[in-house]
Design brief:
The structure holds two protein chains of two kinds. Chain A is mostly helical. Chain A contains 22 helices and no strands. Classes of the chains: A mainly alpha, B mainly alpha. At the A-B interface, helix 8, helix 9 and helix 10 of A face helix 4, helix 5, helix 6, helix 7 and helix 9 of B.
Chain lengths: ~550, ~240
């Protein structure tokens, strides 16, 4: 290894570390890093648990090794050439370094990565291994071998023709498929090949490498013949009737095809129009915009409200209400979804109520448990409705700059923006709560918990989605970035995480009052609600802060 | 009419057009030449119909010698014990075992040729990015059946000589004392001499059809007709 290249690598490494630390100022990067750190912390905390030992069983290790080996060779081969920085090509390739020195230079980051990963492995799994240090060193060396193979495959892949590359790619894929099937069968006794494939009858798929008498003497084939055996006579009348049906339908199919082919209208113009319309619709859906409906564009203007509620900041609420009124199609869809969702659980509740009445009354504890379960499921409705009611910042992206000029505080405007979707979620949940109150059995603490808990859930979810929207809008300002499915997944994960502290507090408090469950539930629910509302307020403040420092407003 | 020198040279090296019978015989000694002729000749239905019909015929001839009726009735008895079939059905199966087998021979051989041709055509088109008609693949698969004809006759003769209907010209010949249901005997039975020969012939056929090297063709043909076949039996 050349010392100059070693120094260059070290300098670049230092600079990358610094830029990584700087990138932590971006909320999305910070969240990603925290997520990885949390996962590692979680694994480290539970490193002595049994499930961690399962991860380093021989079968798991062999599986992991196979994945690494296959992944590295395949990835390298697909890369078709050594992947370098543009600066490397410009400066290093023209410098007096040998080919080996440059290859080694490109491998140095991989070596560091392998060493760090082995250290993490040692820290997490040392308690489950007989020779932890030896295993960690072997893992590091194996990873190095994988990196070498990947590099060799990349260099080799780049040296062959496109056609040969295509063929070798399929060969590798087929070979790895066979190896995977073998591994799954031997290590986990998982049969990727169905049992009927081992029947001699299946050998027919390998003609001419078969023995015909073996194939035809298969019991499965003879059992099949049993099914074809005529067990009853078919009358001539029946036969003719069947033939008549068959003939009529065949005639209809052929006749309709004949008519279709005889049409003299030019189909291409209409096809172009339809294709453009559907493509536009798909593009708008991918961009997260409304689907354009021709009839809806000519929306009539609405009279100004007379209620004082819609004065001042209430105007934002009024604007969102008008938008909602104009989105009849989306609202109809959301209404149908709510109807089906709540209808299903109402029916379930009614059936339970009816069965309990017929079979004698169920115990109060059972009935309350069932009702509470339904109430929890209704609480989940808010998760599903988030994307159906985007009448908040998500619809006002282009107007945010104007909103900032209004003489109101960002917090008040934020609250005005998120009030409508929150109220809509609550209204949808109310559709399910009413039959729940009629048919279900509640004690007062549960009822109060439900009434106060639903707004907390709906508010938290709305704020999370709006935060995501503003964050992705911030991202879009930067070069070459866009909102992705990963981002959406992150929001969904975060939607659940914002309830974690409240849930934890509820459980901890409830555990202190095991002897008195009624008091325990009341106190735990109260504590949980307080924590959740505190989190909600914190999230609202963060949302207001984001709205205030929205980058589009600055740059525009 | 003027012809270029290259065209004249091509005409010189083109193999002469042979009959189906000659092709079937030549396949044992020089499959490469046979397939080269198939590739450049216009499609001929007889190239796959005749060998497939011969496979049917030879299989029908040796069926009695290679079928263990005791083994079959034991299998039927097991089905009856497991209440999977009724007494009447069991009696029907025992009575019509050979009849069903004969009928199945006709169907399975033609279906097998079509499937093998499809596999060859698919491998050529998708994995090897080569263009050839499905009919040509059908001819290659059909002609390769000639090995199977010989294999079936040898199996029949072997069974008649040893008196064991389950004996095969495979590695299992050396462990014939083992029960036919044991894994070792099944595994040994998969390494049949004629199966390997047929696989080699198919390899040559694909290499000629797709204009690829024998090594490349062998990867796919042996991968499917040898390794996948063994994997299907042993992993299933």
């Amino acid at each position: 290894m050349n010392r100059a290249l070693l120094y260059l690598w070290f300098s670049l490494l230092r600079r990358r570390c610094l830029s990584f630390v700087r990138s932590l100022r971006r909320p999305t990067t910070l969240i990603g890093v925290l997520a990885v750190a949390s996962l590692l912390g979680f694994l480290f905390y539970f490193r002595h648990e049994k499930f961690m030992g399962e991860l380093v069983r021989n079968q798991s290790l062999v599986g992991g090794a196979l994945i690494m080996l296959a992944g590295s060779t395949f990835k390298g081969f697909l890369q078709r050439g050594l992947l370098c920085e543009p600066a490397d090509i410009e400066f290093l390739f023209t410098s007096p370094f040998t080919q080996r020195q440059i290859v080694m230079y490109r491998l140095l980051p991989s070596y560091l990565f392998a060493a760090l990963q082995s250290l993490v492995f040692l820290a997490l799994f040392s308690s489950h291994l007989k020779h932890p240090l030896l295993t960690a060193v072997c893992l590091m060396l194996f990873q190095l071998a994988c990196f070498h193979l990947a590099t060799a495959a990349a260099i080799f892949g780049g040296s062959i023709s496109e056609e040969a590359h295509h063929r070798l790619r399929w060969m590798m894929l087929a070979a790895w498929f066979l190896i995977t099937a073998l591994y799954l069968r031997v290590a986990w006794d998982f049969r990727i090949v169905p049992a009927f494939c081992s029947s001699p009858l299946f050998q027919i798929f390998f003609y001419p490498a078969l023995t015909v008498p073996d194939t035809v003497n298969a019991v499965a084939l003879h059992r099949l013949a049993l099914g074809l055996q005529m067990t009853h006579s078919v009358s001539t009348e029946q036969l003719w009737r069947n033939l008549l049906y068959l003939g009529a339908y065949a005639l209809a199919a052929m006749g309709s095809l004949w008519l279709l082919l005889r049409l003299k209208i030019n189909p291409f113009e209409a096809a172009l129009d339809a294709t453009t319309r559907v493509s536009e619709r798909r593009r708008r859906l991918q961009d997260g915009r409304r689907i354009y409906v021709p009839g809806e564009s000519a929306a009539l203007s609405v009279r100004l409200p007379k209620l004082r509620l819609f004065d001042g900041l209430g105007a934002i609420l009024w604007k969102n209400l008008v938008t909602m009124r104009r989105c009849r199609r989306e609202m109809l869809l959301a209404g149908m979804f709510v109807f089906i969702y709540t209808g299903f659980f109402t029916a379930l509740l009614w059936i339970y109520h009816d069965l309990a009445k017929k079979a004698g009354a169920a115990t109060l504890y059972e009935e309350r448990g069932f009702t509470t379960g339904i109430a929890a499921v209704l609480g989940m409705l808010a998760f599903f409705l988030q994307r159906m009611f985007p009448f908040d910042f998500r619809r006002d992206g282009p107007h945010l700059l104007n909103f900032r000029t209004l003489p109101v505080s960002p917090l008040a405007l934020t609250l005005a923006e998120i009030s409508l979707p929150t109220l809509l979620c609550l209204a949808a949940q109310a559709c399910g709560v009413i039959p729940l109150i009629i048919f279900g059995k509640f004690d007062w603490p549960t009822m109060v918990f439900m009434v106060l808990g639903y707004p907390a859930v709906a508010l938290a979810l709305n704020v999370v989605w709006n935060l995501y929207y503003l964050l992705s809008a911030l991202k879009r300002v930067g070069p070459g970035s866009s909102s992705t499915a990963v981002g959406t997944l992150m929001v969904v994960a975060l939607s659940f995480l914002v309830f974690y502290p409240a849930g934890l507090v509820t459980v901890k408090v409830a555990n202190h009052f095991v002897a008195n469950p009624s008091l325990g539930f009341t106190l735990a629910a109260g504590a949980g609600l307080i924590v959740q509302y505190s989190i909600d307020m914190g999230l609202v403040l963060i949302l207001a802060r984001f709205f205030k420092s929205f980058e589009v407003a600055r740059g525009a | 009419m003027r012809m270029s020198t290259a065209a004249l040279q091509r005409m010189d090296v083109r193999p002469g057009r042979t009959s189906v019978g000659a092709k079937l015989l030549n396949l044992f000694v020089s499959p490469g030449a046979v397939f080269e002729e198939v590739v450049i000749s216009p499609p001929r239905v007889m190239n796959y119909l005749v060998p497939t019909a011969l496979v049917c015929l030879s299989s029908l001839v040796v069926l009695n010698a290679t079928t263990n009726l005791e083994h079959a009735s034991t299998a039927v008895g097991q089905l009856l014990e497991g209440e999977k079939i009724t007494q009447t059905q069991a009696a029907w199966l025992n009575a019509h075992w050979q009849g069903v087998s004969r009928m199945a021979i006709g169907i399975t051989t033609f279906a097998g040729v079509a499937w093998s041709a499809f596999v060859i055509w698919f491998v050529g088109k998708i994995f090897l990015k080569s263009r050839f008609a499905f009919g040509k693949a059908l001819e290659v698969a059909g002609l390769s059946g000639t090995i199977l004809v010989l294999g079936t006759i040898v199996t029949g003769l072997l069974a008649a000589a040893t008196g064991d209907p389950l004996v095969r010209p495979a590695l299992s010949l050396f462990c014939s004392k083992l029960s036919p249901d044991t894994l070792l005997r099944t595994a040994c039975g998969l390494l049949d001499f004629f199966h390997l020969w047929a696989t080699a012939v198919l390899t040559i056929g694909l290499s000629r059809l797709a204009s690829v090297t024998i090594k490349e063709s062998a990867f796919w043909i042996a991968g499917y007709w040898l390794f996948a076949r063994i994997a299907v039996v042993l992993l299933g």
